[in-house]
Design a protein that fits this description.
497 residues; mainly alpha; 2 domains; three-stranded antiparallel sheet; 20 helices; 58% helix; membrane; transmembrane; transferase
């Protein structure tokens, strides 16, 4: 049966915005983080140093087992996952409240810069996570209607487990459910479905634990350094930075709608007020925990809060749906979508056409402070470097297989653009805290080469991998221009043992 009414409207908006995201995905070069997850996908594992494996599986699936390697192909999974997540959120909110509210929620979801860019354009661990997260929210909505249905509980467990296998933040789904049961549904403690679902979640997420047992719990030690509070010197500037980041990444319009709905909680129908606390218990501790950590440490990242605000969108959508039905979409939803689309058009224009750089103009640090350069000029510099590399080979100044080395995990950006298309070996050199997942790559062990190249962009601040290399010299400088003006320079170093 073909969808009708609000379901058809939701699908139409999902298609339109998915095509918009697809244009962005194919029009922007890969960023540092995305290149790192591309590296994940080259060697599938049950867990990686800093994240579970689902992003690598998604890349493998959408690139036909690595056959396609373009930025757009690598990001295809993110675009498709965002479309699927928007539909699953529609289903969740339709189950909780109404199809009208579900339609509003699906549009607000796609208008979030977190859901519609970080997880919906860029290929990140958040990309598969949000597909499973919203699916789990739908199953929770169904459980609230019929807590004895085994299918809903088992599907929730599978989706929550898959969310954790995408990113450990998925555990907030389970902790939120546990808090809701303790404070609102203690009768559920007598349900065998609850305990079977909990066991299934643990089983699905067990590869993370098994890998960490074999590797001295290195993932947990790494992440604990980012969120553990080891002193109580308040830093309100850090918390303010985190709060502003949450506001911006989740779309200011969406955040205002969520806060307004929380403040007008009693205006919602009693049935909604009895069900939506489950979503609040998932979301509010999540966002609150990050703000608490930010009071003491400047290590939180604003996109970490994204799933929390997505979980609160049903509340905002339900409040909007209680209002008069006068137009296709309420002004607030149109405002959120317009803010999203116009901002991304502007971002694409800056990345592709801004004259030179809005960052540092000093030749030594050209482009520093210009985040758009993470997505611009790498392909052009790669072509130029390959010509220089071939010249070095023909002149006999280097031997075949002379590698490019890097001392940090963001060297994956260099590997993707400079090594992959030119069949040049790559090696990360340094301690595990710096090279991260590269530490487990076979090519990162063994004796160092007699000579190697190292490529450092002028807008980034990484050190040369000098351990094991006694000599260094600048061999070339590759300057990339944008709209006719210098944007950033790639400094090519030669290192010798």
């Amino acid at each position: 049966m073909l969808p009708t009414g609000y379901a058809r409207k939701a699908l139409a908006m999902i298609l339109v915005l998915a095509l918009f995201r697809l244009w962005l995905a194919f029009g922007l070069e890969l960023g540092n983080d995305e290149s790192y997850y591309w590296m994940y996908s080259r060697q599938l594992k049950p867990n990686y140093f800093d994240h579970p494996p689902m992003v690598a599986l998604l890349i493998r699936l959408c690139t036909f087992n690595g056959w396609l390697q373009s930025p757009g192909a690598l990001r295809l999974g993110a675009v498709l996952s965002a479309a699927g997540a928007a539909w699953l959120l529609f289903q969740a909110v339709r189950t909780l409240h109404s199809a009208r509210a579900g339609f509003y929620a699906s549009v607000l979801y796609q208008a979030s810069f977190y859901a519609g860019v970080t997880a919906g354009v860029y290929i990140m661990p958040d990309s598969p996570q949000m597909l499973f997260w919203t699916g789990a929210l739908w199953m929770l909505a169904r459980i609230l209607r019929n807590e004895r249905d085994w299918n809903n509980w088992l599907l929730f467990a599978v989706l929550a487990g898959a969310s954790i296998m995408s990113k450990v933040h998925g555990a907030f789904l389970c902790s939120g459910l546990a808090l809701f049961v303790l404070f609102h549904r203690r009768s559920w403690l007598r349900l065998p479905q609850l305990y079977v679902a909990a066991a299934l979640v643990l089983l699905i997420a067990s590869p993370i634990l098994a890998w960490n047992i074999r590797n001295d719990f290195i993932t947990y030690r790494f992440h604990s350094r980012r969120v553990a509070v080891d002193h109580f010197n308040l830093r309100f500037s850090y918390a303010l930075k985190e709060a502003i980041g949450q506001l911006v990444f989740n779309n200011p319009v969406n955040v205002v709608l969520v806060i307004g709905a929380l403040l007008h909680w009693k205006a919602l129908p009693s049935e909604s007020r009895s069900r939506l606390p489950l979503f609040n218990w998932i979301a509010l501790p999540h966002a609150g925990f990050l703000l608490f950590v930010a009071l003491f440490r400047d290590t939180t990242l604003p996109h970490w809060s994204g799933p929390a605000y997505v979980t609160l969108l049903p509340l905002a959508a339900a409040r909007l749906a209680e209002g008069p039905r006068r137009r296709f979409l309420p002004r607030a939803v149109v405002g959120a979508a317009t803010t999203y689309v116009l901002t991304l058009f502007a971002w694409m224009a800056v990345v592709q056409h801004y004259p030179g750089t809005y960052g540092s103009k000093d030749p030594k640090t050209l482009g520093t402070g210009d985040i758009s350069l993470d997505l611009y000029g790498w392909q052009e510099a790669s072509v130029a470097f390959n010509r220089l590399y071939e010249q070095e080979l023909r002149a006999g100044r280097i031997s075949t297989g002379t590698p490019i080395v890097a001392s940090y995990w963001w060297g994956a950006h260099v590997e993707y653009y400079f090594c992959r298309p030119n069949a040049i070996p790559f090696r990360a050199v340094g301690p595990v805290r710096d090279i991260r997942e590269y530490y487990w790559r076979p090519e990162s062990s063994g004796p160092l080469p007699a000579a190697a190249f190292c490529i450092l962009a002028s807008d980034e601040h990484y050190e040369l991998p000098l351990e094991g290399f006694s000599q260094k010299k600048i061999a070339y400088r590759i300057t990339v221009t944008r709209s006719g003006k210098p944007a950033h320079t790639f400094v090519v170093w030669k290192l010798f043992r």
